[in-house]
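Glucosamine-6-phosphate deaminase (Paenibacillus profundus), 240 aa
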Amino acid sequence: MNLLTFQTNEELNQIGASIIASLVQTKQNAVLGLATGSSPIGIYQELIRLNEKGYVSFKNVRSFNLDEYVGLPAGHPETYLSFMNKQLFDHIDINKENTRVPNGNAENLEQECKLYDEMLADASIDLQVLGIGHNGHIGFNEPDQNLHGGTHIVTLKEETRQANARFFDSIDEVPKQAVTMGVGSILKAKMIMLVVRGADKADIVHRALTGPITTEVPASLLQTHPNVVVLLDKEAAKYF
Ligand code: GLP
């Protein structure tokens, strides 16, 4: 595991973006696993800049997002599809038909999960971008006695709904369920880039990466992956 600590957000964003950009430039038809949340936003902004300047093109890239809320109306600003369009896809030369975000409004959600897994099996992710929740979740794989390998429907923990309430008018509007890629699919990515910012994540990221490997801290399973790069700002790196 390669742990990099950055003194400034600019440096973190530049290195994160250049890791993604090098892959996209060198690998024909690269497949990216993408994440939402505040952690990757600066990296996406840097990718937009590199794309505008012509240093990297996403024309042949395919992408799969980790997760999506269940039940938010299509076009709602807090769907993860809206997030991805706003934060990245609308500003780069990617073909949107090559981007996938689970459909949290599918009539048959079980079927949607199955379809997503079939697409993932065909594609095989080269680089998965990840954030971490305060409780150690990755994607929306919440701490539990058992974890799922594949895409599945999850009931969000109260603490996760509270953490994400800042994006909604009130906690009541935060969906109670989500569709998420499973930990098995995440670990199948050839490379994983975990991005963690802020003092409030210092304890969980330290526990996840140095503590016991346990389903009660889903991110701790990253310790079993052979090719993980962790980008930490100096606040999140406090305990390393
Ligand atoms: C959400 C997402 C996760 C993300 C996490 C952390 O719950 N489903 O994929 O990693 O939040 O978000 P943030 O980066 O805003 O702290």
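The chain has one domain: 2-233. The chain is about 30% helix and 20% strand. ok done for today
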